[in-house]
Specification:
With 184 residues, this protein is mainly alpha-helical. It has 7 helices and no strands. Helix 1 runs antiparallel to helix 2.
């Protein structure tokens, strides 16, 4: 009888240790997802801060491109005021599309392309866009690890008990996939 109790205690102890380890790994992955999202946020904020300077520079040269400039400003405002992660992903997709159209318009103005301030702003924005792309990739990789852990047996048992929820991938929306159309 003593051997049975020892085996039961060992099995229960192993289950408890496994449960604690699984719970802690889920917490670690969930926090990694939050960290990666905050990295994207940093770069999106930097991009949002650059946009008014670019718009003002373009305004000086391309006064009759008001519709494109308004679209960029509107998309920027939506991105800044987004309250949920889903809204932020959607709004930033629209902003990326609007910026693409803005730079396509800028191609039509050789004196604007030659402007040092515009060129520096454009290069800074390009670097920021590259950083956003890398941050999105790292975020999505982390979300994938987290989702896999949530859905795989037997970890999913602990995830369901403690109500861990899956996170969204940062995906390109239809606006980002469109080729900017420029009309003269």
């Amino acid at each position: 009888m003593d051997l049975v109790w020892i085996i039961v205690i060992i099995v229960v102890a192993l289950l408890v240790v496994w449960g604690i380890g699984t719970y802690n790994s889920l917490i670690q992955l969930r926090n990694a997802v939050k960290d990666q999202w905050s990295q994207i946020d940093v770069h999106l904020k930097r991009r949002a801060d650059l946009i008014p300077n670019i718009v003002e520079t373009v305004k000086g040269y391309a006064t009759h491109e008001k519709e494109t400039l308004d679209a960029v400003i509107s998309a920027r405002n939506k991105a800044i005021s987004a309250s949920t992660k889903e809204d932020e992903i959607k709004a930033n997709g629209e902003l990326t599309g609007a910026l693409g159209r803005l730079f396509a318009v800028a191609e039509a103005y050789p004196e604007l392309k030659a402007n040092t301030n515009f060129t520096e702003l454009q290069n800074t924005l390009k670097e920021t866009e590259d950083k956003i792309a890398f941050a999105r990739q790292f975020y999505n990789d982390t979300v994938l690890k987290y989702k896999n852990k949530l859905e795989m047996f037997p970890t999913n048992l602990i995830a369901n008990i403690f109500n861990f929820k899956p996170e969204l991938f940062f995906e390109a929306n239809e606006t980002e996939k469109e080729v900017p159309k420029v009309q003269f």
